C-alpha cells in the first residue's frame, strides 16, 4: 500500500507556474488549487513517502 505525504503551498499569481514547476521537480504532484486568503491561491500537493 502506498503511503503519502502532503503539503500546502501558497501560490503567488504572478509566479504560479514557477512555484509548481519547482515542487514538481522535487517529486510533488498537484492535487488541487483552492482560493486562499485575500486574492491568493493555495495548492495541495502529495508524493509517495519514502520507506
Question: What would your notes on this structure say?
Answer:
It contains 1 helix and 3 strands, in the order βαββ. With 51 residues, it is α+β, with helices and mostly antiparallel strands. The protein has one domain (4-48). Strands 1-3-2 form a 3-stranded antiparallel beta sheet, covered by helices on one side. The model has no long low-confidence stretch (mean pLDDT 94). This is DUF4177 domain-containing protein.
Query: How widely separated are the two ends?
Result: 11 Å
The helix-and-strand class reads alpha+beta
Q: How much strand content do the residues show?
A: over 45%
Note the overall shape.
elongated
Q: How large is the radius of gyration?
A: 12 Å
User: Order of strands across the biggest sheet?
Assistant: 1-3-2
Helical content, roughly?
10-25%
Main beta sheet: strand number and arrangement? 3 strands, antiparallel
Order of helices and strands: EHEE
Q: Total strand count, please?
A: 3
Question: What is the mean pLDDT?
Answer: 94
> Spans of 5+ residues with little confidence (pLDDT < 50)?
none
Number of helices: 1
The tally of structural domains comes to 1
